[in-house]
Amino acid sequence: MQLNKTLIEVDEVLRKFIEELKKEGLYCCINIVIVSDHGMTEIKQSVVIKDYLDVTGMYAIPGTIGHLFKHNSSKC
């Protein structure tokens, strides 16, 4: 029951987020990746982004929440 309520709340937040991206003209030029945290667990495998994406002209800010930005970018 609590899980369903939480999923409904998350769904609403994502809907509003996407709505705002569309209003600002940003929805067409970004990728949204939704991940989940399963708690404190041993990491058995890592993924190197550049093995899957062309990161030319991009820079990353590492951390518990990683960020990947395009150099000298503005809206789309």
Describe this structure in words.
Helices cover 29% and strands 11% of the residues. By secondary structure, it is of the alpha+beta class. The protein has a two-stranded antiparallel sheet with strand order 1-2. The N and C termini lie far apart (41 Å). The mean pLDDT is 81.
The order of strands across the largest sheet is 1-2
- What percent of the residues sit in helical stretches (DSSP H or I)? 25-40%
Number of domains: 1
Which structural category fits the helices and strands? alpha+beta
* Amino- and carboxy-terminal Cα gap: 41 Å
Number of helices: 1
Catalogue the unreliable spans.
none
Rough shape?
A: flat
Q: Output the radius of gyration.
A: 16 Å
pLDDT average, as an integer? 81
Major β-sheet annotation = 2 strands, antiparallel
H/E series, N to C?
HEE
The number of strands is: 2
Beta content = 5-15%
Pfam families: Phosphodiest
InterPro entries: Alkaline_phosphatase_core_sf, Phosphodiest/P_Trfase
Protein name: Ectonucleotide pyrophosphatase/phosphodiesterase family member 4
